Amino acid sequence: MPKHIVSGLKYLTAVELIRDGYSQKEVAKILEMDRSTVSHYLNGRNLSWNSIEIAKIITEFCPKDFLILTYALMQEKARIVVKTCSNSKYKGIIKESCIGCGLCADICLMKAIVLNDLKAQIDSNWCCGCLICGESCPTNSIEILEVK
Amino acid sequence: MMISNTKEVQALDFEISRSAEEKRELLYKDDICIGCGICEKTCPVDAIELGSIGAIVRTGADVPKIVCDEDKCVLCGMCSVVCPVDALEFKIDDESIKDMDEYPQLINSAEINDDTCIYCKACETACPRDSITIARNLPDRSKLVTGEIDIDKETCIDCGICEEMCPADAITIEHKLPTPDDPTVSSDIIVDKDKCVYCLICKKSCPVSAIKAACRSCSYGEYDLNPEDTVTTGSSFIDHETCVKCGWCQEICPVDAATVVKTFKGELHIDQDTCQACGACVDICPCNVLSFPQSTVPGKSPEKVMSDENYCIYCGACDNVCPVKAIEVKRTDINHTPTKSKSWEKQIDSLKT
């Protein structure tokens, strides 16, 4: 079953990426799949519609659940799926109380956070709005705003 | 996906680390810790707790001076930056944050200029932390005084008086038992001319006037003395891990070869009326700032503690340890390199009192 859900998530991601203008070759590279599998997916082959339905439901979870479930299914590859299939954009604001401990950077599954001059910096391109960083922050210095 | 710290304890030392995007490590060395509690005051997450320093120092108890809760510690490195000694080291991916520009550093230093130093070892003796080692090469004694000495072995009766009298241990008589074929009590008498200082005591004390000796310096002055031969050379070493930059070496140096720059400016106040002369502060002070005056009356204990702020680094250890709050340490200025982080600036600044 998990395998089927992963296929569904990859399908949704591939569709989005193609819509964003990526070629099938590029999509295959991004998702680390065979080019032929991408092609099959896009033509609706080798894939049950049921898997796609479930995958769709998962993408509509709240960002934290979407990320955690996807990460449990796909580990590192979850980043690109969540980034691509997420409908919202987020902006992270780091308050001056940040002590640069790097806990948020370590904990961020999207690898959206880096430290710069002892202060965290959140890359809006990757932030999925899961708020996991804020939960871990010892000084409550992180604020995540939905911008779209 | 839970990220947690690991802690390793070895005797009184500990090591807390976290490995994820980068490897962060905090290493604590108890023998270097002065128990000042600055780390406890600075820690932004209250992970550090200062132990019962007074009891630990006075009883030599086998307990670490600080305890760090690895579940609270977020490995930010602040404690390491503010530690006045190198008791807390912080590394990111095996590189010390002391070598990273983005981290502020306390500014302090202690240096001995080997060009000026005369290797008298006053600093080595005065250093309260035993951080200074002076290695010196003394001048060759035989080059500082020259002369001539000769023992007439025909006249010498092997009495050994010269051997016993010689202050430089330069004369050796090879004593032996007499035998029928050699009815003497010694086989030879030898003068080590590298040791002889031509003081002429042997000559003056010889009961049979067998010794001829003359000191060239006494006769002709020091004209043949090469000034280079009189110089003591050497090198100085300061262990910066243990050095507290207290300034004893600078104050005691007779030739101003030692220079100490301190991190904190401040004030040390002792309320003599409150002080019970328990001596806890004297025992904890890493800088030998505090002492009891010599009691003039036998059997009477000192009534008050004396201090010399010249040597104080305003670490506050005495303030923490005083059981009757008779000591107040104020820090009015902190000398540190800049940081762009507002929170770090604020936290370092909070050490001012």
Detailed description of the structure:
The complex is a heterodimer of chains A (148) and B (353). In chain A, strands 1-4 form a two-stranded antiparallel sheet. A two-stranded antiparallel ribbon of chain A has the order 2-3. Chain A has helices at 2-19, 24-30, 35-42, 49-59, 63-74, 78-85, 103-107, 132-136; strands at 90-94, 113-116, 119-122, 142-146. Chain A has 148 residues and is α+β, with helices and mostly antiparallel strands. In chain A, strand 2 (113-116) and strand 3 (119-122) form a beta hairpin. In chain A, helix 1 crosses helix 4 (49-59) and helix 1 crosses helix 6. By secondary structure, chain B is an alpha+beta fold. Chain B has 3 domains: 6-99, 2-Layer Sandwich (Alpha-Beta Plaits); 141-230, Alpha-Beta Plaits; 262-335, Alpha-Beta Plaits. In chain B, 18% of the residues lie in helices and 26% in strands. The mean pLDDT of chain B is 92. The chains are: A alpha+beta (148), B alpha+beta (353).
Q: What does this entry show, briefly?
A:
Chain A contains eight helices and four strands; from the N terminus they run ααααααβαββαβ.
Write the layout of secondary structure elements.
The complex is a heterodimer of chains A (148) and B (353).
Chain A: H1 2-19, H2 24-30, H3 35-42, H4 49-59, H5 63-74, H6 78-85, E1 90-94, H7 103-107, E2 113-116, E3 119-122, H8 132-136, E4 142-146
Antiparallel strand pairs in A: 1-4, 2-3
Helix pairs in contact in A: 1-4, 1-6, 2-3, 5-6
Chain B: E1 6-10, E2 13-19, E3 23-28, H1 38-42, E4 48-50, H2 53-59, E5 66-68, H3 78-82, E6 88-92, E7 95-96, E8 109-112, H4 122-126, E9 132-137, H5 141-144, E10 147-151, H6 161-165, E11 171-175, E12 186-191, H7 201-205, E13 211-215, H8 216-220, E14 233-238, H9 248-252, E15 258-261, E16 264-270, H10 280-284, E17 290-291, E18 306-307, H11 317-321, E19 327-334, H12 342-349
